[in-house]
């Protein structure tokens, strides 16, 4: 097999750095020459991904700039760099695009298919990390830890007074019902963790065989049943067009006034205006969001005025393990490609 030219785009992210660290040893002795495109002024990850060309989104950098830098690449490895048709045309010998994300929304998969280019990704790269964060947020809401932190700053030692502590009464998880919307890599791991806390589990995931849901110790449910029965609702699905605003005013009205909503999936799943009203009017107890429609949110976002809403800045995959796991999945796929073996994580075209 002739030697391949592999280009890694360093977009300045931790995952890109993990790729740069892991790939040389994984590919040692293979017929491949590796080049790293250093983070430039417009390619570096200096803020949240904000690019959207209509075909690719959530990316760092300029497609036009990248197109002029990948000439001669046979294998292109990216994390959040944009891979549009223009970029692919800049590398006419490109045969494989490896994106170190669970959902490669920054790659125009349809354009790659039309050009005969295979796209692989790293499913489950942050599943363990996101499941951990989900449970952390669930516990945070159950035990009112946000209010505890606020009051400890306000009252100091005075918070140890019995009358003060009584206002911080929380919930036990054992016996409570968790509704899981979406039963993929993250949802299944959340279920395992929640079972260990003695929770009852309802799952709404229409594309998963109900037998698989039952085998995991959960009960399949319609979205309406899940929302009306759960003490905690946790979202773990993708915002396909039919799911944009999946949780809106009507769905929030179905929830118990004592219930809490957790979203560590995608901001587009929740109608933020409807959630703001539901929280402000105490229609539900509380919510915790790791993802928003616009990231970062504007300073005047009304969410910042709510005491029963806890926000984290998209930390689901921000652990030491997740970038390394992604890099190793990608390395394995490149090894398979170079050896002519079947690829395990090929992305279907997205048109």
Automatic annotation (TrEMBL):
Its domain of life? Bacteria
UniProt cross-references to InterPro entries, sorted A to Z: D-2-hydroxyacid_DH, D-isomer_2_OHA_DH_cat_dom, D-isomer_DH_CS, D-isomer_DH_CS1, D-isomer_DH_NAD-bd, NAD(P)-bd_dom_sf
**Pfam families for the chain:** 2-Hacid_dh, 2-Hacid_dh_C
Q: Domain D-isomer specific 2-hydroxyacid dehydrogenase NAD-binding spans what residues?
A: 135-316
GO molecular function per UniProt: NAD binding; oxidoreductase activity, acting on the CH-OH group of donors, NAD or NADP as acceptor
Ranges for domain D-isomer specific 2-hydroxyacid dehydrogenase catalytic: 62-347
**Can the keyword Cell cycle be found in this entry's annotation?**
no
Asked if NAD is a keyword of the record, the answer is yes
Kindly give the PANTHER family that the UniProt entry links to this protein. Answer: D-ISOMER SPECIFIC 2-HYDROXYACID DEHYDROGENASE FAMILY PROTEIN (AFU_ORTHOLOGUE AFUA_6G10090) (PTHR42789)
* Family membership: Belongs to the D-isomer specific 2-hydroxyacid dehydrogenase family.
Name used for this protein in its record: 3-phosphoglycerate dehydrogenase
């Amino acid at each position: 097999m002739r030697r391949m030219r592999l280009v890694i785009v360093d977009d300045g992210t931790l995952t890109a750095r993990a790729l740069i660290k892991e790939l040389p040893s994984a590919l040692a002795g293979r017929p491949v020459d590796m080049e790293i495109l250093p983070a430039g002024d417009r390619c570096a990850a200096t803020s949240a991904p904000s690019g959207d060309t209509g075909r690719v989104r959530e990316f760092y950098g300029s497609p036009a700039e990248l197109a002029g830098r990948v000439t001669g690449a046979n294998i292109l490895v990216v994390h959040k760099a944009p891979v549009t048709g223009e970029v692919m045309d800049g590398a006419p010998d490109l045969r494989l695009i490896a994106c170190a994300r669970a959902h490669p929304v920054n790659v125009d998969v349809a354009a790659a298919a039309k050009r005969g280019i295979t796209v692989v990704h790293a499913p489950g790269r942050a599943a363990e990390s996101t499941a951990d964060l989900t449970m952390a947020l669930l516990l945070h809401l159950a035990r009112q830890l946000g209010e505890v932190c606020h009051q400890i700053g306000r009252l100091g030692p005075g918070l140890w007074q019995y009358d003060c502590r009584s206002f911080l009464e929380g919930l036990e998880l054992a016996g409570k019902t968790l509704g899981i919307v979406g039963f993929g890599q993250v949802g299944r791991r959340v279920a395992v963790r929640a079972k260990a806390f003695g929770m009852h589990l309802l799952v709404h995931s229409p594309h998963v065989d109900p037998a698989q849901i039952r085998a995991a110790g959960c009960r399949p449910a319609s979205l309406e049943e899940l929302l009306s029965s759960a003490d905690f609702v946790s979202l773990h699905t993708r915002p396909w067009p039919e799911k944009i605003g999946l949780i809106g005013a009507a769905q929030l009205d179905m929830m118990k006034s004592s219930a809490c909503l957790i979203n560590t999936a995608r901001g587009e799943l929740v109608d933020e205006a409807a959630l703001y009203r539901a929280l402000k009017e105490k229609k539900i107890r509380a919510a915790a969001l790791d993802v928003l429609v616009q990231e970062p949110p504007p300073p005047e976002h009304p969410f910042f005025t709510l005491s029963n809403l806890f926000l984290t800045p998209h930390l689901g995959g921000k652990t030491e393990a997740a970038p390394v796991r992604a890099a190793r999945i990608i390395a394995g796929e490149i090894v398979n490609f170079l050896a002519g073996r079947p690829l395990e994580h090929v992305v279907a075209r997205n048109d």
